[in-house]
């Protein structure tokens, strides 16, 4: 496929990228096309405003968090590699992968997906979801339709349920445990990125 | 009339076993007797036939010209009949009631016999009972009534079961797997029908089977009748094996959706059996017909569902008839669909599924319970009756046994099911994220049970067009027996053997709820970034549309604005509190309310006016009256039962409103208790915990000056802190008294309760020490209360926790 190859050749280090994320060339091309469509000014990087231009994302209650997740701390722009790396989290997990403890956890395994979601909650990156952070998420999800008291009681109950070591915050392990019944692979995968 | 009754005394001489068996046998005997009596005395028996029995009487009433004149004009005086027997007058309702009674008593009886119900699924036992009853009637020499009449089945027995299934259908797993389900339902059934029909025809053509008069089209018709997986049988068997949600919804969904296919194939082949051949045009017409039947059925159901939802918006003043709307609209949806030969089952499912989220937001809690219980009751009775009637119909015959035909049918059905499932899964797995494993495939294939729908469809066949109808019926019955008995009985041990994942018993936690919503938003966002119109995108769009337009129309008052997370949270609290109360302990309602001065001034952001009018206007005293009422009604259910019988007084529902804050307070108490047991000897009067706005919503006033009394102690030293910032009103004191009299029990609640009881005593210290003795007494009364408070009801399924379109 000529166009695929030509597009692929435009991207530096594409082999390494595919290796790391497990995407096929077709996926990379598709994502690259999307990247270019978003990058209106053709700078080769995306800025928060480019993401903000996606209308539907603006309506999303956690839209700004998602956008924030693409940008590493301190960075103002996202290049294609980082873009693809983040999206690789949402690839459906490979069932057939042999459990090799020496290899690093692939980016689309259940744990990595959960870690990504956890980081969206944990904005200050201290490894725990504190009550305040949970309240923030609830507030944005419930879109001002409820009172502060209701939010607080829900937050209290949530922490009470999940918090096993009683530190009034949810650590990653507790987070993972509370979601053990949910099929994360199913919930956090986008089909076309197979 | 000789009746052969097999009575053998079981070797264990366990009284229950004996009693159970005796009961069963007596019931069967009774049933047989009455029916034969009825049969003997009336010329025409038919469970639903009106022209039997009451013929004479009815003619008199209708005054049909030309009918028999029974009033004699010649008046002969005879002795005034003091006591007379007139069976014909009540025959039909009596027989119907007797059947229903038999069915219900059977259900009771099975559970009295201890180990039986764990080995043999209920459906098998019921068929056996039906066989026995039929056998009794036959032995009596009377004609067995054709009880599984198709009209009766399709119009009366089937709808409750389907409505129950549709109303409580877990929408999310259903929608998530809808592609798979449709594949199995449509393609799988088609494959089965043609495979079985075609091969049967081929077998019939073989010399030596004496079956060569069976043509292709009747064979295909037979194939289509027998290939449909039956929802009743699947429900009956799968209910008992508690298999995981995915498999359950796959098999069950398939059994529901294949109705459309069956209807179309059945009508197609039936029509053209007369003509003898099917042209390609007919095939195309058939496909179009299928689309119309299925989509039309769904549309009809959805329309009625929306009507029901809309009606329920206005029922706030006539709460008593709310459940009626649910039932009647659904039944009418079914009948309307059947009128147009659309798929009634799909209409019913669509109606139930569409109306449910809106109706539940509108109707009162009691109506909700009523709907749930009635549906479960009717569907349970229907199911029981269906299986019994199957047994009776088997005995009734007529049968035409043909070894080849029957055995080939059974084998082919099994083979085609397996091949169909394996083949389809292979294709489906390419599109699924979570693949179906071999174990799953096995269960799906093995769980394809046939049931009474196949029989009724066969029964409907015209005798003239289909001379081999009796042979078909025999084969259908054999197949049904085979699947229900053999597959039904062995599926449970197989599930255990293969270690198939079972249903998760635990309810959804609020963590799961929050995080899954969060993940939904996340995935929608990511899909938007990728520019992909995936399935989250559409779900999100549907949700927005729903929230913006539909909910406004269909949900009463301001409740439509209540986000689903909040509704879920309330439900959880509610449930947990009810559980706490039912376990009989930890119920301490401090007479004093937390300081509410600040709370009162904070208006909830939108105080829903409709909800405000649901709450009673209150004064402090009225508030306590309400609490007392709650306590009374909850804790003294035995005595309360006969009190409010008047239909009209059921309307006002303060119970509901006071409930919320009562329960939330309790939860607070428990949390505080937990915290307290960790603190040691630490006397505080903690700040009043923030009040949940549900409480604000439910009540408009509270006792502003009272304080929250808590004692902090970890080692049972009754250090009492009674903080009397305000004189407690005598009412509240009284209530507490009553409370501790009946509420406290320490059955299995552990040390925490010990601590709290001390607290009660502490609070009561100013009252009288008489409280202590009364408490002891209260403890003894409790087993009785526990029994009446504990009402397991139909199995607690987590369909209730399912938010609509999460």
UniProtKB/TrEMBL annotation, chain A:
GO annotation terms (biological process): protein transport
Keywords: Calcium, Cell membrane, Cytoplasm, Lipoprotein, Membrane, Metal-binding, Myristate, Nucleus, Phosphoprotein, Protein transport, Repeat, Transport
GO cellular component, one term: nucleus
Subcellular location, record wording: Cell membrane; Cytoplasm; Nucleus
PROSITE patterns: EF_HAND_1, EF_HAND_2
Molecular-function GO term, any one: calcium ion binding
InterPro entries named among the record's database cross-references: Calcineurin_B_homologous, EF-hand-dom_pair, EF_Hand_1_Ca_BS, EF_hand_dom
Domain EF-hand: 109-144, 150-185
Taxonomic superkingdom: Eukaryota
Similarity comment: Belongs to the calcineurin regulatory subunit family. CHP subfamily.
Protein's recorded name: EF-hand domain-containing protein
Lineage: Eukaryota, Metazoa, Chordata, Craniata, Vertebrata
UniProtKB/TrEMBL annotation, chain B:
Region (Disordered): 46-67, 742-806
Residue ranges constituting the Cation/H+ exchanger transmembrane domain according to the UniProt record: 101-495
Catalytic activity annotation: Li(+)(out) + H(+)(in) = Li(+)(in) + H(+)(out); Li(+)(in) + Na(+)(out) = Li(+)(out) + Na(+)(in); Na(+)(in) + H(+)(out) = Na(+)(out) + H(+)(in)
Membrane-traversing stretches: 21-40, 120-140, 152-169, 181-203, 215-237, 249-269, 284-310, 340-359, 380-397, 403-429, 441-460, 472-495
Keyword terms, alphabetized: Antiport, Calmodulin-binding, Cell membrane, Glycoprotein, Ion transport, Lipoprotein, Membrane, Palmitate, Phosphoprotein, Sodium, Sodium transport, Transmembrane, Transmembrane helix, Transport, Ubl conjugation
Membrane topology: Multi-pass membrane protein
N-terminal signal peptide: none
Chief place of localization: membrane
Location of the protein in the cell: Basolateral cell membrane
Protein name in UniProt: Sodium/hydrogen exchanger
Organism (species): Oncorhynchus tshawytscha (Chinook salmon)
């Amino acid at each position: 496929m000529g166009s695929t190859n030509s597009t692929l050749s435009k991207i530096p280090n594409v082999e390494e990228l595919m290796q790391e994320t497990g995407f096929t060339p077709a996926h990379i091309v598709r994502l690259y096309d999307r990247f270019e469509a978003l990058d209106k000014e053709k700078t080769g990087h995306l800025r928060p405003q480019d993401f903000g231009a996606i209308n539907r994302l603006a309506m999303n209650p956690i839209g700004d968090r998602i956008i924030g997740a693409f940008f590493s701390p301190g960075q103002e722009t996202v290049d294609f590699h980082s873009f693809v790396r983040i999206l690789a989290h949402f690839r459906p997990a490979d069932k057939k992968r042999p459990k090799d403890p020496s290899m690093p956890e692939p980016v689309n395994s259940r744990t990595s997906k959960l870690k990504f979601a956890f980081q969206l909650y944990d904005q200050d990156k201290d490894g725990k979801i504190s009550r305040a952070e949970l309240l923030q998420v609830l507030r944005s999800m419930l879109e001002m339709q409820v009172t502060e008291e209701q939010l607080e009681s829900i937050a209290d109950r949530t922490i009470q349920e999940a918090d096993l070591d009683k530190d009034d915050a949810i650590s990653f392990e507790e987070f993972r445990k509370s979601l053990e019944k949910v099929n994360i692979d199913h919930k956090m995968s986008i089909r076309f990125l197979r | 009339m000789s009746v052969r009754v097999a009575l053998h005394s079981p070797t264990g001489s366990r009284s229950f076993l004996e009693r159970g068996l005796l009961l069963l046998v007596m019931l069967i005997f009774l049933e047989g007797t009455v029916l034969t009596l009825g049969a003997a005395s009336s010329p025409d028996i038919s469970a639903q036939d009106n022209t039997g029995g009451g013929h004479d009487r009815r003619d008199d009433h209708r005054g049909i010209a030309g009918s028999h004149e029974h009033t004699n004009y010649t008046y002969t005086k005879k002795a005034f009949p003091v006591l007379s027997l007139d069976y014909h007058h009540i025959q039909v309702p009596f027989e119907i009631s007797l059947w229903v009674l038999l069915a219900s008593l059977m259900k009771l009886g099975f559970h009295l016999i201890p180990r039986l119900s764990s080995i043999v699924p209920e459906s098998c036992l019921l068929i056996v009972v039906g066989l026995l009853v039929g056998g009794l009637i036959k032995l009596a020499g009377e004609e067995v009534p054709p009880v599984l009449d198709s009209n009766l089945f399709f119009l009366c027995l089937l709808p409750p079961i389907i409505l129950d299934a549709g109303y409580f259908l877990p929408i999310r797993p259903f929608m998530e797997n809808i592609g798979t389900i449709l594949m199995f339902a449509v393609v799988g059934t088609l494959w089965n029908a043609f495979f079985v029909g075609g091969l049967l025809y081929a077998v019939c053509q073989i010399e030596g089977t004496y079956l060569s008069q069976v043509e292709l089209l009747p064979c295909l018709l037979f194939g289509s009748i027998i290939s449909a997986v039956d929802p009743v049988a699947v429900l009956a068997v799968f209910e008992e094996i508690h298999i995981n949600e995915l498999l359950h919804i796959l098999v069950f969904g398939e059994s529901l959706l294949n109705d459309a296919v069956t209807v179309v194939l059945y009508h197609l082949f039936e029509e053209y059996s007369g003509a003898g051949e099917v042209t390609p045009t007919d095939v195309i017409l058939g496909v179009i017909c299928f689309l119309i039947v299925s989509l039309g059925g769904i549309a009809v159901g959805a329309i009625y569902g929306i009507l029901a939802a809309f009606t329920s918006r206005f029922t706030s003043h006539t709460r008593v008839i709310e459940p009626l709307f649910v039932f009647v609209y659904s039944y009418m949806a079914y009948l309307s669909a059947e009128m147009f030969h659309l798929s009634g089952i799909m209409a019913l499912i669509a109606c139930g599924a569409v109306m449910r989220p809106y109706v539940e937001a509108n109707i009162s809690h009691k109506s909700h319970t009523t709907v749930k219980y009635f549906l479960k009751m009717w569907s349970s009775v229907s199911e029981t009756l269906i299986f019994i009637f199957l047994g009776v119909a088997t005995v009734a015959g007529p049968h035409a046994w043909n070894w080849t035909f029957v055995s080939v049918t059974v084998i082919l059905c099994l083979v085609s099911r397996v091949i169909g499932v394996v083949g389809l899964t292979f294709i489906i797995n390419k599109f699924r994220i979570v693949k179906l494993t071999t174990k799953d495939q096995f269960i799906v294939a093995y769980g394809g049970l046939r049931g009474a729908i196949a029989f009724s469809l066969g029964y409907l066949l015209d005798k003239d067009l289909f001379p081999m109808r009796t042979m078909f019926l025999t084969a259908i019955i054999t197949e049904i027996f085979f699947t229900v008995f053999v597959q039904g009985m062995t599926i449970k041990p197989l599930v255990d053997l293969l270690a198939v994942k079972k249903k998760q018993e635990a309810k959804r936690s609020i963590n799961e709820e929050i995080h899954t919503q969060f993940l939904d938003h996340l995935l929608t966002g990511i899909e938007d970034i990728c520019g992909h119109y995936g399935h989250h995108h559409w779900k999100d769009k549907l949700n927005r549309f729903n929230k913006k337009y539909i909910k406004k129309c269909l949900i009463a008052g301001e409740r439509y604005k209540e986000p689903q997370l909040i509704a879920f949270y309330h439900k959880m609290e509610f449930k947990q509190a009810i559980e706490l109360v039912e376990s009989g302990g930890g119920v301490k309602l401090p007479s004093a309310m937390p300081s509410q001065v600040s709370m009162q001034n904070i208006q909830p952001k939108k105080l829903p006016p409709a909800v405000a009018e649901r709450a009673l206007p209150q004064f402090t005293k009225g508030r306590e009256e309400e609490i007392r009422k709650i306590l009374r009604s909850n804790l003294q259910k035995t005595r309360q039962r006969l009190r409010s019988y008047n239909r009209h007084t059921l309307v006002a529902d303060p119970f509901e409103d006071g409930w919320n804050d009562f329960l939330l307070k309790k939860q607070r108490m428990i949390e505080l208790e937990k915290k307290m047991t960790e603190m040691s000897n630490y006397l505080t009067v903690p700040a009043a915990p923030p009040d949940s706005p549900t409480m604000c919503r439910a009540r408009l006033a509270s006792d502003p000056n009272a304080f929250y009394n808590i004692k902090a102690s970890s080692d049972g030293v009754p250090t009492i802190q009674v903080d009397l910032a305000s004189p407690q009103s005598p009412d509240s004191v009284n209530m507490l008294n009553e409370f501790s009299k009946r509420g406290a029990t320490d059955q299995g609640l552990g040390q925490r309760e010990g601590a709290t009881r001390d607290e009660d005593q502490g609070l009561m210290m100013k009252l009288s020490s008489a409280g202590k003795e009364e408490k002891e007494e209260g403890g003894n009364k409790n087993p009785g209360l526990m029994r009446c408070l504990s009402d397991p009801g139909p199995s607690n399924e987590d369909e209730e926790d399912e938010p609509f379109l999460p």
